[in-house]
Amino acid sequence: MKPILIAVVGIDGAGKTSQAHELAGWLRGGDWHVRYVPNQTLLPVRRALDRIAVEDGLGDHTELLDADTMRLLASGARLAALHDALVEPAPVTVVDRYTYCQYAAARLLKAGNEDVLRRLNRELPTPDLTLYLDIEPVEAQRRIKARGVDEETLEFLGGFRDAYRSLPEYESFTIIDAGGDFGTVQGFLREPVRELLAGL
């Protein structure tokens, strides 16, 4: 059987991490051998860069390196994590975020490195199913505030949503209404996954 790759993407506050993790668990409960690839955080790298910035008399990493360089670091870390997972793929791989998240962020911030990011990732496979968690910016902002880790403006969240919609790959995404409660949204995710696997 050809290995299946499922990506879960969307703006901040859409529920990507919790929904992708739950989806992988559900598949394992159905006797599928599943590899779950979590989001590759750059937090340790940012903290190390913050220390270097302070040593140099700067505020933090944002004054040490520009946004394009940080995005390139994030893309490199993501590529390494995905490469390791896909060299010897499991029957089903569920990925929390994919390259499309990087491209949308580059468009949102009007960065000039989307082409470089795409070329960096060109050997990665196209997912068999990309689940885009669509959510209104107001609800996304409410969820972000509730978890109490960070904050995002409505302008940022709305712009991020528009950036995703402008991607050439967007037409191939399966759009999931992510505005409901956790269980309802998880049910929406499972429907296209069930259809995909039933056709194998």
Note down, in words, how this protein is organized:
Helices cover about 55% and strands about 15% of the residues. With about 200 residues, the chain is an alpha/beta fold. The chain has one domain: P-loop containing nucleotide triphosphate hydrolases (Rossmann fold, 3-Layer(aba) Sandwich), CATH 3.40.50.300. The longest helix is centred in the middle third of the chain and has 21 residues, at about 65-85. It is globular, with a radius of gyration of 17 Å. The N and C termini lie close together (about 10 Å). The relative contact order is 0.21. The mean pLDDT is about 90. Its EC number is 2.7.4.9. This is Thymidylate kinase. One of its GO terms (molecular function) is ATP binding. It comes from Phytomonospora endophytica.
Uncertain runs are none
Looking at the structure, what is the overall shape?
globular
The sequence of SSEs as H and E is EHEHHHEHHEHHEH
Number of strands: 5
CATH superfamily: P-loop containing nucleotide triphosphate hydrolases
Proportion of residues in helical segments: 55-70%
Catalytic activity: dTMP + ATP = dTDP + ADP
Domain Thymidylate kinase-like: 10-180
Binding site for ATP: 10-17
Enzyme class: transferase
Summary keywords:
Thymidylate kinase, Thymidylate_kinase, transferase, kinase, 200 residues, Rossmann fold, dTMP kinase activity, alpha/beta, five-stranded parallel beta sheet
